[in-house]
Amino acid sequence: MRLRVLLTAAAVAAVPAVVAPGPAVAAPLLCLASAKQIYAPASPISAPVGDVLACRTVTLKEVPGNIPMTAYQVRYVSTDLHGKKVPVTGTVAIPRAAWTKGGSRPTVAFHPGTLGSGPQCAFSKQLAGDYQDMYEGDQIASFLKAGYAVAATDGAGYIDGSVHTYMIGANAGNAVLDVVRASRNIPFSPLKADGPVGISGYSEGGAASLWAAQRAATYAPELKIAGAAAGGVPGDLKMTAEQLNGGPFAGFMVDAVLGLTEAYPTLPFKELLNDKGHTAIADAKTLCLFGTLGKFFGARIENYTTAKYTLAQLYTLTDPSGKSWLDALREQELGVDIGGPNSAARWKIGFPTFQYRGVFEEIIPVATQVETRRRYCAAGIPTQFKDNYLGEHLIADGLAKDDVTAWLGDRFAGKPTAGNC
Question: In sequence order, what E strands does 80-106 have?
């Protein structure tokens, strides 16, 4: 009788994905959703943040090592920068081996690096082998081999009918924190509320990691965060855009423009575009990482508007409220008004950070990475900075994975760190 009730409830919970939009119903009692239901278009949500709206068990084909685990694709509740509840997707993976190091099993909250804006690019789809353009399966494996659960968000916007809000700090930080909550709300989840949490990410994920760190005390104060690791961090988007424009990695800039216009729909945008600009936006919405970089190699922002606006000119344009493009960029800047847990700062951080980069960094300006570290140190936040990984931007991510895992392990074990400020 009880099994019949559970199956019936699970089936009812899946209904919002296949009927006309309406208020979300109770969370599923079993993870029986289809892939279509996980990535269904957004509908009004009444459930609390962190609630699981749908889940399904999956095999993570792109996580090497044949690690015994139970893995799920999840659709969960988060909020965007405007305070609106939004559905976000992600992956939760839990090692099957018992946790024997005392206390509750730790969880690593992970945000991937740039994957592109096409719906097929979602990290959760790529980990399961549905499409392959990502490069961080080894990072996930490193955490799982250490015995940690992994709660990896796709980031906002990887659902049908939406666009990923690339590089929007509040959206990314909230999604990272809420996927941890969701990992504990999966039916029969073994993860406990008192389990320590580590945050990790590189490049786009590095910015998301620090945004989650900055927002944690006010947005998710119940989470016991032990530390945040962030590599290749684009802490200042204005500086980063100036380096990308016209260069071999201009595709990242195109994705950032797309993300900003999705997050700030009142800013002037479509009316500025020429035919080439409209085509570029349509293309970017369908491409993943390497397709985007190939398509927009050497692209300059000036060539996509009717008035040939430079970046400096675009920054001055405003919406009806007076918000400018530069204002929107500055809202994503890291290390502004941060401080310790007892400070008067807007963003209070009560745990250490590990920030890192490669020696041959060629995509994210070194100056913004150094400045982000300087701001964290100036705020009194214990910060370890390592800048000697012998690789360029993409390679440095993989080179650092063992150090990231070990550093988070020390934080989970309660070992103190003063950093190297």
Answer: 85-95
Domains of the chain (ranges; CATH) run 2-236+339-412 (3.40.50.1820), 237-330 (1.10.260.130)
Backbone angles phi, psi at 74, to 5 degrees: -130, 150
Task: Say yes or no to pLDDT of 218 above 60.
Answer: yes
Q: Residue 52 corresponds to which tokens in the numbers above?
A: 């699981």
The predicted-structure confidence for 257-308, as pLDDT tens digits, reads as follows: 999 999 999 999 999 999 999 999 999 999 999 999 999 999 999 999 999 9
DSSP string, 184-238: HHSTT----TT--EEEEEETHHHHHHHHHHHHHHHH-TTS-EEEEEEES----HH
- Give CA separation, 393 vs 54, 114, 227, 297, 366, in Å: 35, 12, 23, 17, 11
Helices (H) and strands (E) in the chain, counts: 15, 11
CA count, 13 A, side-chain hemisphere, 125: 20
Which SS3 state, helix, strand or coil, does residue 293 take?
helix
Single-letter residue type at 196: P
pLDDT at 9 over 60: no
Instruction: Output the CA–CA distances (angstroms, integers) from residue 330 to 168, 211, 314, 342, 351, in the order listed.
Output: 11, 13, 14, 25, 25
Amino acid 381 reads I
DSSP conformation letters of 352-419: -EEEEEETT--SS-HHHHHHHHHHHHHTT--EEEEEEESS-HHHHHHHTHHHHHHHHHHHHTT----B
Per-residue model confidence as pLDDT tens digits over 371-419: 999 999 999 999 999 999 999 999 999 999 999 999 999 999 999 999 9
